[in-house]
Amino acid sequence: MTAPSAVKAALTTQSIETPSWAYGNSGTRFKVFAQQGVPRSPQEKLDDAAQVHRHTGVAPVVALHIPWDRVDDYAALADYAKERGLRLGAINSNVFQDDDYKLGSVCSPDPAVRRKALGHLLECVDIMDATGSRDLKLWFADGTNYPGQDDIRSRQDRLAEALTAVYERLGEDQRMLLEYKFFEPAFYTTDVPDWGTAYAHCLKLGPKAQVVVDTGHHAPGTNIEFIVALLLREGKLGGFDFNSRFYADDDLMVGAADPFQLFRIMYEVVRGEGLSSEVAFMLDQCHNIEPKIPAIIRSVMNVQEATAKALLVDRDALAAAQAACDVLGANAVLMDAFNTDVRPLLADVREEAGLDPDPIAAYHRSGWAQRIIDDRKGGQQAGWGA
Ligand code: PSV
Ligand code: MN
Ligand code: MN
Fold this sequence. Notes:
Elements: H1 4-11, E1 16-19, H2 42-56, E2 61-65, H3 74-83, E3 87-92, H4 111-131, E4 135-139, E5 143-144, H5 152-169, E6 175-179, E7 189-190, H6 195-205, E8 209-214, H7 224-233, E9 237-242, H8 259-271, E10 280-283, H9 292-312, H10 315-323, H11 327-338, H12 343-352, H13 359-366, H14 368-375
Parallel strand pairs: 1-2, 1-10, 2-3, 3-4, 4-6, 6-8, 8-9, 9-10
Antiparallel strand pairs: 5-7
Helix pairs in contact: 1-9, 2-9, 2-13, 4-5, 7-8, 8-9, 10-11
Bound molecules: alpha-D-psicofuranose and manganese (II) ion (MN) (2 copies).
One manganese (II) ion (MN) binds next to loops.
């Protein structure tokens, strides 16, 4: 087993990015259940994110979603974050919520719609300049519902054209993260349905274009850790949108549905030297029925637990068993790490950082939940069931 001190040291290098929309009200297409005390502004979302960071110590970055987090002065918003020990992370573009986007955005057959969508993406890069954000996250709802509705290849050409324009606009230290999703809202074709399509576009664009793996965006049974291993090997894994799913894009708390899968993913991250700042560990979740801040704290802890277990894998023993063609021995090395209770180790890590060993209990004791219920009336909706 890897020495606990080395595991603890590696754990301190990971930072987890929480999404602004997870702090707001969300729901399904059937109902948004409003909760008391949810943020009424991007600033209040940052106030809540600061609580998550305060109790976990590893969530100093917050992703924004434009236009859901539209403000007049983005540099001032970045200052607001900084004053709370945070920084602004990925800017998530939104080319799916306007009526104009019924037949797609950058892939639409209508050139005026394509121009509008590209204008929004370029505006997001302007916002990155103001906030100091490194990453532009691109998720396209584009696709078709019926065979013959539009030309699959022409849509790829339009996509490539828009991505190229955005790529050329990126600054020296900025990146674009292209996210794929196999279906929904389109049900016949999706223009960026899988890692292969995202990878092909990113490869042509250049090193500043990277693939983002949303763990809820695959067909059931897909081996996500294989995709992670491959993208890391090719230097093309820009980050994760973590969440968990039982059926489709459920956006439940990461690690809730399948902690073993999360461990397997994190093992490939560790194996591929991906615990660096080059890989963004973002959450993309919605908390429709559970209180939001403790749910986000729980999610951060779940990522940490999977990471700790992945770090505990005895890589020398694993390599030896693999080289000896010892199938069961190799599997046992991995399972030993997965079956280790890492909660005491993580409690130590927190205490050594001056934090409460139990972040959820510390949050409940802090009084923040009652304070926001008292102070905030009429909280914001996250947009839609992102
Ligand atoms: C839609 O599926 C989605 O959940 C994507 O995963 C994006 O990352 C997110 O919305 C925010 O736009
Ligand atoms: Mn996502
Ligand atoms: Mn999604």
